[in-house]
Hints:
single chain, alpha+beta, elongated
Amino acid sequence: xxxxxxxxxxxxxxxxxxxxxxxxxxxxxxxxxxxxxxxxxxxxxxxxxxxxxxxxxxxxxxxxxxxxxxxxxxxxxxxxxxxxxxxxxxxxxxxxxxxxxxxxxxxxxxxxxxxxxxxxxxxxxxxxxxxxxxxxxxxxxxxxxxxxxxxxxxxxxxxxxxxxxxxxxxxxxxxxxxxxxxxxxxxxxxxxxxxxxxxxxxxxxxxxxxxxxxxxxxxxxxxxxxxxxxxxxxxxxxxxxxxxxxxxxxxxxxxxxxxxxxxxxxxxxxxxxxxxxxxxxxxxxxxxxxxxxxxxxxxxxxxxxxxxxxxxxxxxxxxxxxxxxxxxxxxxxxxxxxxxxxxxxxxxxxxxxxxxxxxxxxxxxxxx
Length: 368
C-alpha cells in the first residue's frame, strides 16, 4: 500500500504546485488517513518541500480503527503534551525552506490558523480547499473491496436480527444489538449511529432510537452501516411487524421501492447527479409526497459516511465510474410512519454490468 499512498500524495502535490504552493498541510482526519494510511488522534500530514511527515501529538498507537501509517512515511511526534501538530507542522514547513503552505482552512479553527502564523510569520498561508476530498471521490478497487466487506457485515447483522423475536423490544435495544452484531462480524464499529424507527417513527431520516416498543402492525425501518478498515457503507430497509401489511402500507412501500429502483437504474458514468435525484424523486413527487421528501436522494460514501458527490436537486457535476454512492429515498407521514429503502452501490459502466449493488438484503416487503 505504500505505493498507493505515495501516488495519492504525489497527485496532491501536483495540484498544490500548480496553485503556487510549495507545501501543504492536511488536518482533516479522513484526508490524513487517505494520504498517510492512518490518522492518529490530532495528527496532521505535512507535504513538505523536501520531506513529507506525519506529525502526531504523541507516538501513534496500534488501534486498528485508526489504520496503520504508511511505512515509507516518516513520523514526527511532539516532544511533550499540549502541543499542536498543525502549528508544529507549519514550523517544520518553514524550516524546510517553503515560502508558502496550503492548509485546509475549512477544518482549521481561527485560533490554530493564527498560531501557525505566529510560529512561521514569513510563511504565506493559502487555502488548500477541498483538494483532497476531490481526490477521494473516485475509489480504487482496494477501497471498493473494503466497502464491499463492510456491506456484507451490515447485511449479515441485519439478517440475523430479522430472524429474532422483535415484538415488545424497544428501538434503542434493537439499535444496540445491531451495533454489537456489526463488531462481532468484524467491523471496526458502526459507520454512524444506528437508526431504528417503529410505528409513527418509521421512515424518518436520522431518527434517534427511543424506548418505544415494537408493536404488531408497525412499520419497522432500520438504517445501519459498518466501518471496515476505515471505509463506511450504509443500508436501510423497512418491514412490517407480525401481520400482513395494510393496504396503505403496501401502497406506500411499492411507491418508495419504485422510486429507489429508478434512482439505482439512473446511476451511470457521465450521469448528472441532479438527474439521479430527479429519477428517484419524480414518482414520489407525482404521488403528492413532494413536501415529505428529504433534501437528498443519496450521497457518496468512503472514509466518511457522507461525502461527495451529493445527489440533490441542485447538485452540480456528473458521476464517474468507481464512485460509491447511496440511493435512499423515503417518505415519512407524520403520526403514521413511513418507508425508507437505502442501498450502497458503485457506479459502473454498462459494459461492466451497470451499477454494482453492495448491500443485498432483500427489498421485499416482509412481515416479520
